[in-house]
Structure formats: structure tokens, C-alpha cells
């Protein structure tokens, strides 16, 4: 999660951040564990809130209509009616683009917000409900992202050093980024032991997950910088908005679900 909060203040907010995490994580795990309509409902809530956050951040009009379409988009997943799901997404994109303020930048920004939010919730649902062992895949990938975030946060604060991309996210350091990759490689090793498969495949997967998650964090940080906001919202004390919290996980869900769908052998190599 990209953060422009001063380092000393981030430490003072740690207890609040932990409380928020302890509430949000079990809810996310329960939705993914149950899957189906439970996960679709959670995705709908997330899509609704994230769409509101995007509209507020980018000054996009029709925020409640777009948020409602985001919720409908997610609730359509279990129906497995591709035409309906695509139609809702197209309607939201058109409403955002044509309803935006005059100017190409405003229209592109509004349309991109729909793609950004819808892709993240769609990617998570697809990761859980894909042709592979979706429950295990989603739980593994989520835990890897959280391990990456935690390692980057604590090791980055402890060791400091050169900044990763100071113009985009001044609190991210190379020490934190490297620690995050190593933490996910270790997680991959233990996952391979649990699944009884080759260590290399899961360790490589862990490294890739950390890199994608950090890229998602930095991308979100860049977006907020361009919109001149510190947080996407205030719904999560100590974290900001949902977009701030799920940027890395959303990127991993999209890339991971596509990778598993395009390369069926990957699921086999991972024991999924």
C-alpha cells in the first residue's frame, strides 16, 4: 500500500492499523472460504465502496449509479451469464465516460476507474471459482500478499535505506521490497511442502506474487499522487480506503487468475 504519511506518524497509527486488519482479514477469509454467493456478495460490497472512492478521488459524476452497477456486476458472477456481466460492465463504462466532465482526460479517467475496480473484484472471484482448486489458490495468494505487505512494512521501517520510487511512494524502500520478496519465497517453500510438489514452482510463484503485489501498490500510489490525494477514502482507520488496502491483492488476483487460466500446467505444478 503506497503511503505518503510521515514515517513517525505511521508508527503511531500501527495499533489502529492492526485492529482494522484483524477485523477485515477474517471477513475476507470467510468469504473466500465459502465462495459462491458469499464471495459474490463480499465482492459487490467492495465494488460499491471502491467505485465511490474512485469517483470521489477523480471527481467522476454519477457516483452512486456507478457504485450500484459495480455491486450488480459482482452479484452477477454466480449466475454464470457472461452476456449479462459484460452488459453491466459496458453500461458502467459508458455511463462513467460519457457522464464525465468535458475533456478527454476526465473521460479517460472515469472510464479507467470502472475497468480498474471491476477487474479487481472480477479477478478475485475468478481466482476462487476457476477450474483449478480455487479455494486453496485464493487463500494461498491472499496470505502471500499479506506476508509481502507485512515484511515490506516492518523491514522497511527497521532497516530503511534507499527509496524504491520516491516520487510515487516515499515510504517504500529497497530493503522493504527485498524483504517482501524473500518472505514470499519462504511462504512458497512451505506451501510446496503442504501440497507435496516441487519447491521451485511455489517459490517462484511466491516471488512473482510479491512483485505483482508491490507493483499494484506503487500503481495505486501513482494514481493518488496524480489526483493529489493521500488516501482513496477513510473507511478503514489507519489504512485509508478500500482501494488503498486491496491494490496489491487486486493486482495479484487479476494476474494470478489469468495466468492459471492461460497456463493450465501452472495449477498442476502448484498442486492446485
From TrEMBL:
<keyword id="KW-1003">Cell membrane</keyword>
<comment type="pathway">
    <text>Lipid metabolism.</text>
</comment>
<dbReference type="GO" id="GO:0004605">
    <property type="term" value="F:phosphatidate cytidylyltransferase activity"/>
</dbReference>
<keyword id="KW-1133">Transmembrane helix</keyword>
<comment type="pathway">
    <text>Phospholipid metabolism; CDP-diacylglycerol biosynthesis; CDP-diacylglycerol from sn-glycerol 3-phosphate: step 3/3.</text>
</comment>
<dbReference type="GO" id="GO:0016024">
    <property type="term" value="P:CDP-diacylglycerol biosynthetic process"/>
</dbReference>
<keyword id="KW-0472">Membrane</keyword>
<dbReference type="Pfam" id="PF01148">
    <property type="entry name" value="CTP_transf_1"/>
</dbReference>
<keyword id="KW-0812">Transmembrane</keyword>
<feature type="transmembrane region" description="Helical">
    <location>
        <begin position="72"/>
        <end position="96"/>
    </location>
</feature>
<comment type="similarity">
    <text>Belongs to the CDS family.</text>
</comment>
<keyword id="KW-0594">Phospholipid biosynthesis</keyword>
<keyword id="KW-0548">Nucleotidyltransferase</keyword>
<dbReference type="InterPro" id="IPR000374">
    <property type="entry name" value="PC_trans"/>
</dbReference>
<keyword id="KW-0444">Lipid biosynthesis</keyword>
<feature type="transmembrane region" description="Helical">
    <location>
        <begin position="177"/>
        <end position="194"/>
    </location>
</feature>
<keyword id="KW-0443">Lipid metabolism</keyword>
<dbReference type="GO" id="GO:0005886">
    <property type="term" value="C:plasma membrane"/>
</dbReference>
<feature type="transmembrane region" description="Helical">
    <location>
        <begin position="21"/>
        <end position="52"/>
    </location>
</feature>
<feature type="transmembrane region" description="Helical">
    <location>
        <begin position="108"/>
        <end position="127"/>
    </location>
</feature>
<feature type="transmembrane region" description="Helical">
    <location>
        <begin position="139"/>
        <end position="156"/>
    </location>
</feature>
<keyword id="KW-1208">Phospholipid metabolism</keyword>
<keyword id="KW-0808">Transferase</keyword>
<protein>
    <recommendedName>
        <fullName>Phosphatidate cytidylyltransferase</fullName>
        <ecNumber>2.7.7.41</ecNumber>
    </recommendedName>
</protein>
Amino acid at each position: 500500500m503506497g503511503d505518503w504519511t510521515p514515517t513517525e506518524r505511521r508508527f503511531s497509527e500501527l495499533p489502529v492499523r492492526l485492529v482494522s486488519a484483524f477485523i477485515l482479514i477474517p471477513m475476507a477469509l470467510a468469504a473466500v472460504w465459502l465462495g459462491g454467493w458469499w464471495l459474490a456478495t463480499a465482492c459487490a460490497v467492495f465494488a460499491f465502496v471502491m467505485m465511490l472512492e474512485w469517483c470521489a478521488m477523480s471527481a467522476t459524476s454519477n457516483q452512486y449509479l456507478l457504485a450500484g452497477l459495480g455491486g450488480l456486476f459482482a452479484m452477477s458472477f454466480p449466475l454464470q451469464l457472461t452476456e449479462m456481466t459484460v452488459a453491466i460492465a459496458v453500461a458502467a463504462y459508458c455511463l462513467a465516460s460519457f457522464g464525465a466532465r468535458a475533456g478527454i482526460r476526465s473521460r479517460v479517467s472515469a472510464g479507467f476507474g470502472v475497468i480498474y475496480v471491476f477487474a479487481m473484484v472480477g479477478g478475485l472471484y475468478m481466482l476462487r471459482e476457476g477450474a483449478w482448486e480455487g479455494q486453496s489458490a485464493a487463500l494461498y495468494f491472499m496470505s502471500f500478499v499479506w506476508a509481502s505487505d507485512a515484511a515490506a512494512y516492518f523491514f522497511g521501517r527497521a532497516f530503511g535505506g534507499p527509496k524504491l520510487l520516491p516520487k510515487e511512494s516515499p515510504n517504500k524502500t529497497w530493503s522493504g521490497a527485498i524483504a517482501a520478496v524473500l518472505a514470499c519465497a519462504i511462504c512458497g517453500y512451505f506451501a510446496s511442502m503442504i501440497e507435496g510438489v516441487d519447491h521451485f514452482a511455489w517459490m517462484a510463484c511466491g516471488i512473482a506474487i510479491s512483485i505483482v503485489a508491490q507493483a499494484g501498490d506503487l500503481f495505486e500510489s501513482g494514481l493518488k499522487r496524480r489526483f493529489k490525494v493521500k488516501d482513496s477514502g477513510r473507511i478503514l482507520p489507519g489504512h485509508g480506503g478500500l482501494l488503498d488496502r486491496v491494490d496489491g491483492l487486486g493486482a495479484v488476483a487479476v494476474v494470478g487468475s489469468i495466468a492459471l487460466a492461460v497456463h493450465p500446467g501452472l495449477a498442476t505444478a502448484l498442486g492446485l
